[in-house]
Amino acid sequence: MTSTIERIAPFKNEIVKNFQDPADAAAMKAALDEVRAAFGKHYPLVIDGRKIETEKKIRSLNPADPEQVVGLTSSASKAQANEAVEAAARAFESWKRLTLPERAEYLLRAAALLKQRRFAYDALLVYEVGKSWPEADGDIAEAIDFLEFYAREALRYAEPHPVVPIDGERNEMIYIPLGVGAVIPPWNFAGAIMMGMTAAAIVTGNTVVLKPSSDSAIIAAWFVDLLTEAGVPRGVVNFVPGSGSEIGDLIVSHPQIRFISFTGSKEVGLHINELAAKPQPGQKWIKRVVAEMGGKDSIVVAADADVDAAVEGVAVSAFGFQGQKCSACSRAIVDEKIYDEFVDKLKTRVAKITVGDPSDPKNYMGPVVNEAALKSISAYIDKGLKEGRLISGGKRAGEKGYFLEPTVIADVAPNATIAQEEIFGPVLAIIKAKDFDDAMHIANNTEFGLTGSLYSKDEKKIERARDDFFVGNLYFNRKSTGAMVGAHPFGGFNMSGTDSKAGGRDYLLLFMQAKTISRKV
Ligand code: NAP
Ligand code: MG
């Protein structure tokens, strides 16, 4: 019999759908209708395979039209969150005994199911978080990639790990799971990050309590059902939506939680890290925290850059998905020699950006995710108007949904608030640099270190940025968003997080511990 590892094809990234193709566009339209017809559906908690309806619900709204309730999930009480941890601890006892290849099969089955339902998941993201068709499909393509990639990584870790031979002993080192994990994803890659973190945790033999973001709990409910369909045994993934402050703290500090896999804001990540550090009565381990957090990402445009290419790269990095990506460009640092040309051309390019309901494919930008985001981003715009010169946008677009114009503010000082704090919306600050040296200095002047990009044709500048641009994901002459699983292992430095490099060869190690076994022979 050939083992899985021998018959599996090498990993390849999913091709994103081309919605210019009439067949794909028709399939997407049909999926949007189908998902819309199910608006208002209730999704229960899932604890130990049992579906539990609660009185209290979390409403997932369509940010393009918040009167539309995409769906409702039950909201777990503290007692139910405790039950979920206990259920995961029971399931761990059998799940940990499967081999890595056995568990990889479940991920491959889940990936196959997700491929079949690709357009429905795309459509759900359009409604639940306001993604455009291509952004939604990119998210689901990445989710499929994570499942396929981590399945193959699990097979790789199942292979023997070399140790130095010693006479008279037979030595080996193997990787074993950690235990029960809390998986806490954000809403912005509501498919990819939620599925990627969950898949990595379970394929390595852990069991999890999945607390989805309250803004994107429906897609997580779909995924938990999909895992059940793929045969994942009960208790391995327990689904407990609920407010971060109410049940989040309880789950993180539970003594049976062995690790926390978090992606989200700096504030919440630091809070979780602190809470997890404190041992609880009955706790036998130091909890492992993987926290991927915010960014304040820069694109540096050198004097010798192809300005048109830089304008295009900055525009899509800043305004794709309304700037709500941790990798989004929120600072363009431009050499003074080409500054005016860059600002003029960017203004013209941004004027072409269409804003409106993302279920209509003619709109490039949709709404921001919720009312709180709208308010907080608007407050940053007000601040920005005092800190620089408005070039484009600056206002709400439309009354009904949470739409904002793509906003560009030039002549911003390197230490201004809008040049330092993560805004997480469609707001770009342009900063003038005296020369390349100054530009590199400005690029590194925040507390973050996630992505960065340099537009330059000069090998010396590229070499210098390679050494000194302190970011986890550095790009040359291309946009700063759109990291591909396997090709661009992703994660940031400093306050951007623990640099876990999701979609890279080191990632699964974060969910395992090594055991060395020596036998006298
Ligand atoms: P967030 O507000 O920090 O929330 C992230 C998750 O944490 C949500 O599930 C949230 O649940 C939960 N949470 C909140 N308080 C908690 C607590 N006390 N204990 C446990 N969990 C708690 O972030 P977000 O708005 O969803 O996402 C945007 C942020 O994520 C941005 O800062 C962005 O840069 C960052 N991000 C980083 C990466 C990366 O790879 N570095 C990738 C994507 C996004 P509720 O929704 O119920 O509050
Ligand atoms: Mg929503």
Uncertain runs: none
Instruction: Characterize the overall form.
Output: globular
The CATH architecture name of the largest domain reads: 3-Layer(aba) Sandwich
Largest sheet: 7 strands, mixed
CATH topology-level name of the largest domain: Aldehyde Dehydrogenase, Chain A, domain 1
Architecture overview:
By secondary structure, this protein is α/β, with parallel strands linked by helices. It folds into two domains: 21-293 and 500-520, 3-Layer(aba) Sandwich (Aldehyde Dehydrogenase, Chain A, domain 1), CATH 3.40.605.10; 297-485, 3-Layer(aba) Sandwich (Aldehyde Dehydrogenase, Chain A, domain 2), CATH 3.40.309.10. It is 39% helix and 20% strand. The chain has helices spanning 4-7, 22-37, 78-95, 100-116, 118-129, 133-158, 192-203, 217-229, 244-253, 266-277, 307-319, 339-351, 371-387, 417-420, 436-443, 459-468; strands at 41-43, 45-47, 50-52, 57-62, 65-74, 169-177, 180-184, 207-210, 237-239, 257-263, 288-292, 297-301, 329-335, 389-392, 407-410, 427-433, 451-455, 473-476, 512-520. The protein has a seven-stranded mixed β-sheet, with helices on both faces. Strand 2 and strand 3 form a beta hairpin. Helix 3 crosses helix 9 and helix 4 packs antiparallel against helix 6 (133-158). The longest helix has 26 residues, at 133-158. It starts with a helix and ends with a strand. The mean pLDDT is 97.
